[in-house]
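Researcher: Please predict.
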Amino acid sequence: MHKEFLMGNAAIARGAAAAGLNVISGYPGTPSTEVLETTAKINNGSIYVEWSVNEKAALELGAGAAYCGARSMVTMKQVGLNVASDPLMSLAYIGVKGGMVIMVADDPGPISSQTEQDTRHFAAFSKLPCFDPSSVQEAYDMIQEAFDFSEKYHTPVLFRPTTRVCHGYASIEVKDENECKKNIPEGFAKDSSKWVIFPRLSYNAHINIEKRNSELSDIFSEYNRNLIIPSSDASCHKGIASHGISFTYVQEALTGKSLPKVLKISTPFPFPEKLAIEFLSGLDEVLCIEELDPIIERELTYVCGKYHLSTKILGKLTGNVKSAGENTCDSVADNIAEFMGWDKKVNSKLPDAPELPIRPPVLCAGCPHRASFYAVKQAMKDKKSVFCGDIGCYTLGNAMPLDMVDTCLCMGAGVNITQGIGKIEPDTSCFAFVGDSTFFASAITGAINAVYNQANMTLIVLDNSTTAMTGHQPHPGTGRTMMGQVVDKVNIEAVLRGIGLKTVETVNPLELDKAIETVKRVAAEKGVKAIIFKSPCAVLIKPQKPFVIDNDKCINCKKCINNLGCPGIVISDGKVRIDESLCTGCGLCSQVCPVNAIGGERNE
């Protein structure tokens, strides 16, 4: 063993590799992305690494590998599990031969997600064991144990870190190369009674699953990562139950104080019932501190009812802990102080921290999406239009002054929502915006649905040649894989023509006049048509010479600011100027300026 300073996601990747990982697949999504990326970096050739087109494809590939006796891991964020839920529910019944861990990173806050969805619910829903690490070190160790449990019980298991575990850093103990497990898959053995899901098989599998989970509840009561920390005060009849990063906050809040009894839950499903009964013994009240939903609180309430215990269970359901958002060291300390009757003003001598400035996210300087949105906005000026957005950098097109995202639900939804609006409002020009990566992930079926059902809409594909929102991962249109292979690009225009679109035009949005003319012409056509705005992400290209403003020509109309909202254009001393440290030289502002005051040559 030796020590390394690692991010939580890197620790998970290293732990999986130490467990003998053979295959990893996934779809990028914060806070999960770095697990697969780290695996690719440390890969010595023994692990197959894949960014799949979506989470469903990733999970099904991982299942196939596990059918062969391989140890596989699938990575995604919590909303990605919705996409993978169809195969997940059936795979729970079929089971696996090799160990299979489905790593789903939850995002309390939410910091970078549509929802605060709690994967622990999915564990109970799918009847799959769930592991919930509380620190970087535990994530490294627990992922290896999760593989062992999966392989022993022939079931996929869920591994559920949250943002602060995924993105936290710590100096941890990791195995030396000679201590790591090597797994050699046996290969696929044909057995239709095992691998082909039929009603009779499912009925028997359901019976076996319930029996297994009952056994696992007892086994998890002995699992050393579920634990009880005894009270240091025999007269104290209060307890605290927690999990994950919240347990770490509880430990910090209790440092140096007379400790109540503490229960740590690392396997929320199947719930370690016997351990819970032991914990509740002799307690009058228990405070449950958890993210996101009151899973532990409900389980303890159930145990109290089942075994006629008089312990009062407090938490989110009783209003003693906030019902939404992240827990923090301070919020947990306040919850515990109130519960224990301690003085919450232990740090009253410290000045109050100033309010942080509100800094909403914006499209980067030089982002081609800004030009795409502006071109459509200008083309459809004074026309009744609706602009349905999607998940990606371009969701930020909703911000002023662009104000070009009227709806945003989930990945791929904009294409179908556009069709629904068009059926009710046929006099509305309906547009659906989708990125190139999201097109491959979940918008193709929507486009097919539009063609088949004779929709009247314009599909706008914002092709910036990368998966920009999550860190520039490759996708089928980039021509390379996570294994470093150079492959044929999947051509979006060819795909659209192949499914029946007659009008598909590709244009550079930074050629503004041409882009506006294209939108006007294409949008006027009936049926389903598409425009591909193709220009690389500003982060992928070498910036051009910054543009400058000729102060002798500038009339200070601020049209460049008020129409585009580019962070590279600022006001200094009452005058508009370009921030040379941000400007990429895209030239969009020069095409908007009514007096040609913005040029590409630097004033000397």
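Model: The domain at 548-599 is CATH 3.30.70.20 (Alpha-Beta Plaits).
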